[in-house]
Amino acid sequence: MMPKSRRSNRFPGRRPVLALILALFAAALWLAPASAGTASPRAHAAASNFITGIGDEHVKMFSEPVYQRLHTKIVRYIAPYDAVKHTDSLNLAIAFIRAAELDHEQVLVAFYHSEHTPTKLPSVSSYQHDVEKFVKRFPHVRQYQSWDESNRGNVRGSFSSPSASAAARYYQALARVCKGCTVIGLDVLDANNITPTLRYISEFKHEIRVLHTVMPSIWGLHNYSDVNRLQSWRTHQLVRAMGGQVWLTETGGLVKFLPSFTNVHGAGLRRAAKVLRYMFAVAAVIPQIKRLYIYDWTGGTNSTRFDAGLTNAHDQPREGYAVVCKMLKASGCSSVKLAKN
């Protein structure tokens, strides 16, 4: 499971609590040796069946020349489900979505817990009321996820996550208020041990049948644990369990994940670049994968515990950016000056 310390970058103010979560999860992410179950798919993403975009919450990304060079057409944004109720959350969403639309990018919005009451899950009626207002506020956004990483579980005093049953009801509610939209099914983490994730998917599907709701045809998966071990068996198993089309709505290479993985003398930069190459290769050999959203664009500072940025805190491209640039066949990739931090 990948802890969301990066939410502290997206939504300032939650940094102290989420730092504790990172410490709890850091060792677990890298528990298994990289050699066990490692696959060696050939990297032929250039001729693959998927399209690639970026996930981030920093609006300045769109104005950066190294971002514009990639000519991506899709982007993912995480918004609190109750963003319309709070000026701070709504203004962030407005700025990001407006910039994406001006850049002619298709936005996938993933709803998440409230930034103001993160430990309180909404009732289905309250959730439906709030997301309906969001959908009406952004008429050109037609792709949604009902809850980001719904299988994360609860961390007391920090955030709460819905049960599989509740996630199914949120999915149904969002589909009701966004007619004609593409509403993605579950958005789940893989984790080192995927048994709980497989169980969560099964319970979600059962509840969908009980609700007499159409089963999702597109599913969301975050496969950090798999690709950062240079393995693919988790991704294969979860794709089979979901069925249908799968979007890797968050994936990418870790530059730093303290305390277990540091970026001393650029080792983390090289590791992340290697993982990104492998990430493309895995997606290229699984035909069900149709989209890939790399998380994330904006890197952290020296004090950041989680960092998977394609650029550093000063907006300078890293080695991982060069991998993405070349895989997307952008122009002038070799001439980009790369940061050493």
Question: What features would you describe in this structure?
Answer:
The chain has 341 residues and is of the alpha/beta class. It has a single domain, classed as Glycosidases (TIM Barrel, Alpha-Beta Barrel), CATH 3.20.20.80. Helix content is 36%, strand content 15%. The chain is built from 11 helices and 11 strands. It has helices spanning 7-10, 15-29, 65-68, 87-102, 124-137, 164-177, 195-210, 224-227, 233-242, 267-284, 319-327; strands at residues 51-55, 74-80, 106-112, 143-145, 182-184, 187-189, 218-222, 245-251, 256-257, 289-295, 306-307. The chain has a 9-stranded parallel beta sheet. The protein has a two-stranded antiparallel sheet with strand order 9-11. Helix 6 (164-177) crosses helix 7 (195-210). It is globular and about 55 Å long.
Our count of domains comes out at: 1
Output the number of helix runs: 11
Q: Give the mean pLDDT.
A: 88
Largest sheet: 9 strands, parallel
How many strand units?
A: 11
SSE string? HHEHEHEHEHEEHEHHEEHEEH
Low-confidence stretches: 1-39, 42-47
Name given to the CATH architecture: Alpha-Beta Barrel
Break the fold down into its secondary structure elements and pairings.
Blueprint: H1 7-10, H2 15-29, E1 51-55, H3 65-68, E2 74-80, H4 87-102, E3 106-112, H5 124-137, E4 143-145, H6 164-177, E5 182-184, E6 187-189, H7 195-210, E7 218-222, H8 224-227, H9 233-242, E8 245-251, E9 256-257, H10 267-284, E10 289-295, E11 306-307, H11 319-327
Parallel strand pairs: 1-2, 1-10, 2-3, 3-4, 4-5, 6-7, 7-8, 8-10
Antiparallel strand pairs: 9-11
Helix pairs in contact: 5-6, 6-7, 10-11
